[in-house]
Amino acid sequence: MESGVPESLWLVESLLNSVDVESGQDDLNSLPRFRRWLRDHGRGPAADGATEADLTLARDLRDALRDELSGGGDRVGLDRLAGGIALAVRFAPDGRAVLAPAQDGVRGVLGEVLAAIVRAEHEGTWSRLKVCSSSTCRCVYYDRSKNGSRRWCSMRICGNRSKTRTYRERSGASPTT
Ligand SMILES: [Zn+2]
User: Which residues form the signal peptide (predicted)?
Assistant: First the structure.
């Protein structure tokens, strides 16, 4: 997978890719795994206090955001989830007003994710975070192409796979893989 995601969207991309559709591996499928994911992301205090309810919220938010990026999102559901996570306006040392989490723990980490999305929206980078069009891959990647029209996380792997499949379908050849 070619990531190349900007620093500001790193946590967002990492949360969205905490499930691997191809292998079925999911870092958010149990509390111990979720705690490890949080620790791996430098969120030790959030990991220590994480509850089953936090895990459910994190997974629901991740899945709703993935649906949103896929274009098939339920915005009412996403709004409801995002609305339950408190954000506050803070003033950075240089005087800039920024959105920041208003809570500690897992809700704070999810608040960081939402604040980063709002910032990315203003910077024009949110629309470049996409779900790979390959139905088997579905990984989230950052589209660095000039016109923002990339459809696959990797042209080399998923793009070619899809092109080969389309070619086979058009030519009527039976799939070999
Ligand atoms: Zn892909």
Answer: none
**Residues contacting 136, CB < 8 A, separation 6+:** 21, 22, 161
Contact 21, 133 (CB under 8 A): no
Q: What is the pLDDT of residues 126-167, one digit of tens each?
A: 999 999 999 999 999 999 999 999 999 988 889 887 667 766
Centre of ligand 1 from the C-alpha of residue 159, in Å: 7
Q: Decide if domain 7-129 falls under CATH 1.10.3300.10.
A: yes
Summarize pLDDT for 38-60 with one digit per residue, the tens: 999 999 999 999 999 999 999 99
132 CA from centroid of ligand 1 (Å): 5
The candidate with the shortest Cα–Cα distance to 117, out of 151, 69, 154, is: 69
Decide: 128 and 142 in contact? Cβ < 8 Å: yes
Cα 157 to middle of ligand 1, angstroms:
7
Handedness of CA 87, 111, 134, 73 (dihedral sign): negative
Cα of 2 to ligand 1 centre, how many Å?
A: 9
Kindly report, residue by residue over 53-101, the tens digit of the pLDDT: 999 999 999 999 999 999 887 899 999 999 999 999 999 999 999 999 9
